Fold each of these.
Amino acid sequence: MMLKKVCNIRSACILSMRKLSTDVQPALLNNDVKQQKNPLDYPDYFQVHNIFTVKDLFNARVHYGHKEGSLNDNMRPYLYGSRLGHLIFDLNITAEHLRKALNFTAHIAYRGGIICFFNRNSLNAHIVEKTAKECGEYAHTRFWRGGIFTNANYQFGAVTRLPDLCIFLNTQNNILTQHTAVRDSAKMLIPTIGIVDTNCDPNLITYPVPGNDDTPVAIELYCKLFKEAISRGKAERMKFSQENS
Amino acid sequence: MASSRLERIGTIVTRVEGLLLRGGIKPDDRPLWYDVYKAFPPLVEPKYARPKPDIKPIKPILYHEDVIRAKFHSNGYGMGAVNMLSPTGESHTKRLLKQYEKLKREGVLESELVEKSAAAVEIERQDYTKLKNTRAPEATSQSQITEHLKDIFNEK
């Protein structure tokens, strides 16, 4: 079924060339270049579905939520149940959301977007910064000065390019308040990916991924997955520019 | 770039679409993520003012052996040390449960099951530590360590 769909899409992709004329892919309008396939026409162009399995999530303790008392009602659809007061995520739902998020990340990386990682848990700050460095992207794991996005041109004294995607490895400042960058990204029309635990609010996050956002093993796994997705997107971008130079 | 900063109204996409429709931004200046979002929209629309989901009671996760577990715990046998570095290792409670099932199959009386399986697991544990102590490598004996320390600053 899926294969048939892909074949149909392949024949139709010639028609959709106009869609590709974004600022990052200007060369495509040249008709002499042999017809390129459009990654957006494929359901999973970067093959992100094979980066992880549900078993990997389980081993990384992604299914552990907080206790029932701190539950945010918006997180209810993502729960599997409660084990003696501790909430447990349904990893099938998590996997679906995570694959969507990874696919989106890979596409943004392919289009040359700037990606910024966020995390306010000092225990995991180093690994997040290290991952961002290894991807060639950015991270913000320290105190958030208000206005970094909303007043950027003034704060940095020059016209500032904001990130094209914000990845939140935890969306809370502390157990009570949400990270201001979640709100500010929404204000500045920047899509967000966020790991939301049972005590977080997923409403403003564009691609929420329900899962444990505290355990270092889980954060390590997320970092590995996002790094892989970004590197796949960038590798494809490199291949594309070499073919068309 | 012209844009609305009212994040609670609509979603980032509806706000961009509004600007595109009314000529606030030119189609060529649309955000880099716009086409990707349109091709792969999220499973739930990221709207701030989304209605709360139905509040259904949360399903409790319980197992059949929880009844037996409770028996051990109420008699003070459940709490053994757990090696958190090896995820494959069996916990104390699991060993007790195994022993319980084994003894039950052998036909031990219901009233004696808890005490007997706890005793069996204790013997098992003692045997294991004895085995571990006898198998300890010879190199750690005191004399060899001091021999080694004497050579530590010698040039090779």
Amino acid sequence: MTELETKIRAEAERLLSEHLVDVVVAFRKEDAPLHPQPAFFTQVDELQDLVYNGLCANNLANYLTRHPQETRIGMVVRGCENRSVNALVVEKQHTRENLVLIGIPCEGILDWRHIVALTGENVLSVEENGESVCVHTRENTFAFSRVELLHPSCQRCLHPNPISADVLLGELKPEGDPELMRLRIEALENLTLEERNAWFRHEAERCIRCYACREACPMCYCTECFVDHTEPRWSESGVTPAGMQAWHIVRAFHQTGRCTSCGACERACPMDIQMTYLTDKLNLDMIDAYQFEVGMDTTTQPPFATLTLDDKNRFITRGK
Amino acid sequence: MAYRLPKKGLDQTLRAWAEQSKVFAPQKREGYAQFLPWKAGVELLLDEPHNTRFPPKAFLLPQSETLLTYNRKLNQLETPTLQISPRIIFGIRPCDAHAVALLDTVFATQENPDPYWRARREQTILIGVGCNQPATTCFCTSVGSSPFDHAGLDAIFTDIGEAYLVETFTERGEALFAGLPQAEANDEGQARSIQQQAEAGLTPAFATDNLKDHLDQIFDSSLWNEFAQSCLGCGICTFLCPTCFCFDIVDEAQRDERVRNWDTCMFRIYSLEASGHNPRPSRAERTRQRLMHKFSYWIEHANQFGCTGCGRCVRYCPVGLDIRAMLRKAAATPSEVVHAN
């Protein structure tokens, strides 16, 4: 057990034993290597299963909307999760007073697919030691530096520290470089229209419409998703180019001013489809056009969710 | 019959097949193994411990398939003529081929055969490559299969070092290897020992004795809520599963087509009725359905598990729900005693 895990367990134990929360949402030790599971602790004696490591790949804020507002939830949050929680509070999906955020400054999530690509399928265990990561497989042992295994979204992460946690465990990390996300988007924007279209089609059309990206996303909490509507029908449901493109583009647009660039969508995708280039572009637009960054507080509505009398309305053109 | 095919002769064999048929074989693209058309010079992925990410069931049951088109002007329905040319799927793993055999009990029954499945199945030859070293996520031997299972296959390759031992099980499989030298006794002996070693390397992942009855007894257990807590309700486990076959039929009215798409019991709308009632209202009922179908209802249907132990759902579940651990937990859950009154 790491020092950090000991601290998280102690905090979770305090919250549960003092009846400050009804449930602690964290991770539990994995059944299959590389995949610690989101877990819901209600009893102190279950906490021996609690783990926290670089392979904890899900955005736990995703589970917030599964509980009624009255449920008092203790939740382990990293930088992105804290901002997702904030964005959900802005959207009135939970009462902030009923949340206790156990903040962990994040070292970044290790990309299990990348590990498997580098070491083979038969991973038995992963050992993290500060900046170095050791992967034991059935056949071999591999040594890596943490940074080479980080998920791309975590490499570009701007805010690794929880910004409004109730308890902070661990050392604060330095803020990320905003240029990294911008450079990637600019590289795409510098492509020709045809090249960008080919990029988009190539990614979207590998989709198998399992909707893991939607289900892994804290902000995709609609009871009925637009692709599930039958009357009216918004998109083809099969794996046709039109249906898959419609899904990817509309999913991204629904995230405008709501996505925290956590990358949980890409980490869930079984087909390794890139999606964050769309949402990151929208996030940059929100920053550039409205100086709005998602989840930085629990009160500011996303620009597209507000209407004010001094809106510029540049997009409205008078008929001639 | 058993033949010996030197590894350096494989290319020539595939080349000969490709003159007669479309040949698909596992290759790496987008960073993972996929069945792609074989062309001279491509690099094959035959010795990886795991199978392709997307299941080859899609060759026989495409994820989306037009069942009929309608002509509004003439007020007529038109069934598309399936023009499926002969295909050879080379390098399919025994778990995926076993799954095809299971799906035959659904789509190729005497009483009610599915013409779309049958047309594809008749034109598709499955040539397997057995698994000398199954992956840590594999559990075929726990569910009545094995790394060199023959079910569903026309022939199977066993990697014996410099060569493959090729065993054929059907006439059409046999025809593909005519002209190859017959295997010698020591080739076969070597293959048997490799096969036995591979099988022995897999330890039981969960207990299967009485599993169906036990699952039936814990139908109302709170265990399903426990699984549902972390389950995302996405379609990965079922869409990547080689045996899941549920589908939904929709009209793509803008194209005047009636289309069959894969569907999954993990989706909320799968069981949603037009009235708004949903008999499986939460993820608990839906995760239960997935396990019950595979390990209870399949026994009723075909006296086999509807799982071949390929391990895809274990490897790709985004929240690490491992079906093997789920079944171990189910086995450890005491069955509820139901009293009359």
